[in-house]
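Hi Q.,

Before the meeting this afternoon, I wanted you to have the NAI prediction in hand. No need to reply - just skim if you have a minute. The sequence and ligand are here:
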Amino acid sequence: MIADKFHPRGIERLSELGHEVLSEPSLSAGDLPETLAAKRPEILIVRSTKVTATSFEAAEGLALVIRAGAGVNTIDLEAASRLGIFVANCPGKNAIAVAELTMGLMLALDRRIPDANADLRAGVWNKKKYGTGRGLYGRRLGLVGFGSIAREVATRALAFGMQVRAYSPTLTAERADAYDVEVAPSLDALLGDSDVVSVHVPYRESTRHLIGAPQLALMPEGAVLVHTARGGVVDDRALSEAVAAGRIRAGLDVYEDEPSGGKAEFNLELRKLEGVYGTPHIGASTQQAAEAIAAEAIRIVTSFADRGVVPNTVNLDDHGPARHTLVVRHHDRVGVLASILDALRKHQLNVQDMHNVVFKGAEGAASATIAVENEPSADLLDDIRAHADVLGVDLRTAR
Ligand SMILES: NC(=O)C1=CN([C@@H]2O[C@H](COP(=O)(O)OP(=O)(O)OC[C@H]3O[C@@H](n4cnc5c(N)ncnc54)[C@H](O)[C@@H]3O)[C@@H](O)[C@H]2O)C=CC1
Ligand SMILES: O=C(O)CCC(=O)C(=O)O
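Predicted structure with the ligand bound:
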């Protein structure tokens, strides 16, 4: 079931691949639980439609939710994990589109293109007022976050001759170097030393109001904030005050309280300020991005439907508590794995992760790698070794 707008060719392709596709482009988050309960899809694809705990609880048979985009803050990941439902996204596939809009907002702010155009449409030639842009060349751009989108912005800003610095808690000098970008020592240092700040971090509890009044106060007089990440990362009220005071200007694609549908009334005061240029969350909305997102969503559906493997999962405990891994080499015969698991059960050892590979050749041997929650005892290792079809057992422990 696709509970949002999706590329028509993507829908066709899913049908060609033999999937029964139910397209519900105008379904609201409120209607989702009932529709999921009635239609019982195995896979749900969403864009902006919120998937709440109520939806997950109503969706019997649902195994996978695909976010046809990057941010997953509209999906209740805890509820999904509690019910054993995979959630995957399409990372990086709309990054170029967002980077292009970011550059558009930067240029629009510098040359005041929207106002100049509005005046021109109204029959006013005002070269005097609009011929005052400072130019982007040589200006300092500060990127908050350095993921897929920020890197695409960096490439484009460097081509404009800007000096680019970035702050992310995980950014190393080596990685920044590869992109000709400098690392800022802290968010505060970046904000205090940039002519343009562009925000590219996900929304989470820890990034809520990452840019609030104290951070905005650090930005130099006349600086510009571009925000295409997610409503809530910037404190819109504090931003309103800073812009209304004439200290900074802003280019925005996302807002704290924005409609999730395609068309709605939107009366946020912030959008009326002269120092703000805004777009209605269209960062990802190019044909190219829609095609790339649809292709990635189809890849995920195919992998899951054919092999049960979900690429790009965002709710798996990848670095789970398992420190101990058993590597059991065994004859590739029916029942051997069941016997190994039986031994683990007898010793009350919980499996965290498991996979089995088969060696090439006629006399089949295989190897099972089993990550377990607690340290296996010597008795357990002996029990497994005692099995006639077990060729060897090793215990690996992460340091
Ligand atoms: N306007 C639009 O239409 C779109 C908006 N987005 C938003 O942009 C966000 C970023 O997208 P990507 O670059 O693709 O994600 P990404 O996951 O590739 O990069 C996120 C970056 O943020 C950094 N980060 C996390 N917490 C941070 C913090 N407290 N301070 C500084 N850096 C921090 C991470 O280290 C990483 O470098 C998405 O989560 C989504 O909310 C994404 C696509 C379209
Ligand atoms: O699908 C959209 O238009 C929103 C894209 C977005 O915000 C994201 O990918 O995180």
